[in-house]
Amino acid sequence: MSVLVNKDSKVIVQGFTGSEGSFHAQQMIEYGTNLVGGVTPGKGGSNHLGKPVFNTVADAVKSTGADTSIIFVPPAFAADAIMEAADAGIKVIIAITEGIPVKDMMVAKPYIKEKGATLIGPNCPGVITPGEAKVGIMPGFVFKKGKVGIVSKSGTLTYEAADQIAKAGLGVSTAIGIGGDPIIGTSTKEAVQLLMEDPETDSIVMIGEIGGNYEAEAAKWVKENGNQKPVVGFIAGQTAPPGRRMGHAGAIIGGADDTASAKMRIMRENGIHVAESPAEIGEVMAKALKNVEA
Q: Would you list which residues are annotated within the binding site for CoA?
């Protein structure tokens, strides 16, 4: 059992023959991901990286039975690519593209929800189930198989958390990089819920950042649902000044509860083990799991 992607996922790449799509598709194939083809309008019927190229997602799904798509399409066309995937019956859509206009996402998000698809991203590193499938841009070698689920707004901190987990003698069940744009398909709470319901995940690392209320929502949900599994939280941006955007478009302090210290307080109040720095994530998790066993 895993969350969102596994060895049986049939993956296509939208923007397959572009430089980004080509580079990361090759990495995914080398990792062992079941990549069955890709989409580049106008290049249908050709082959790329030993896989078939299709003009549309509908053609790709019809020919390969694809159920998962990863999107490397320029920002101006990416929302259309997301909706095209949902239209074709793709169930898991992972949008790597950064900087999709907010007004486009305001249309795409409800549209795909109506179609019953799950969107991860945009502006995210993707999803990895170690040893089974890497549908994203993360360095696969960092992730060791295990039972710790990771939910993160930050790409780099996802890799750091995976490394800390490995150093603590633990491994990762599935890591979900939800993305740092103002409008994303799957919230922290929704991703945490997926991992809470996964029988092969016994604990969760939740990495957030300043801005918005995703982490507070998730923390309250964890407590309301009886703190079933230990959750370790970390918030990036502890030194960020109010009103200044830090890195991600969504990382801006707009109110008192948007600060790192407020989010850390809310997490503690809801029974989440808080790591003060990324370097402590593995250590705090090992301690939390020891407490559960005791």
A: 17-20, 43, 96-98
